[in-house]
Amino acid sequence: xxxxxxxxxxxxxxxxxxxxxxxxxxxxxxxxxxxxxxxxxxxxxxxxxxxxxxxxxxxxxxxxxxxxxxxxxxxxxxxxxxxxxxxxxxxxxxxxxxxxxxxxxxxxxxxxxxxxxxxxxxxxxxxxxxxxxxxxxxxxxxxxxxxxxxxxxxxxxxxxxxxxxxxxxxxxxxxxxxxxxxxxxxxxxxxxxxxxxxxxxxxxxxxxxxxxxxxxxxxx
Length: 220
Prior knowledge:
The structure is a single chain. The protein folds into two domains: 21-112, no CATH class; 129-219, no CATH class. The protein is 45% helix and 10% strand. The chain has eight helices and four strands; from the N terminus they run ααββββαααααα. A hairpin with a 3-residue loop joins strand 2 (54-60) and strand 3.
């Protein structure tokens, strides 16, 4: 007997996850995020339900996949697909996470935009005193993801994801900056902080993600 699935309506969930869309974007690689957005926008996330600090849904891919995700920490998921069974964050789990955050609402163009590397904004100007303080705080928050690897080798991939997220956050911040002597100094200070982390801070940049970000900053 063929299973029947019903689409869930917007506004069905009351519990809000502890993370937001930015967390999903920065902590997911670009191809997976884009595929997840396509699933979400095509209405492939159905039977969305709340659990105890969790959500569950069915995602219609090549076949229906049952997915469960944690409401407190993004990336703690369970999916029936072959990637999910290997504990790899898949497009189905990300699509359900997007549904939990957006509550089924439409994504804007800005919501879907990803900045994978820093680019020049092309805008001349300086940050106000308040904007400068906010940007410095945001940089400090992003830098927390770029840390020393002190765990066992089996945690290296999780660690690498943290480096990727930190650099993605920094890329967005750098790309939004106007061009001026003030912001140039801000970027130089950032690059010096990153260089220190690489040289004496114990950061394992084996994949070159941090070094790649730094190099792209010079080009941009």
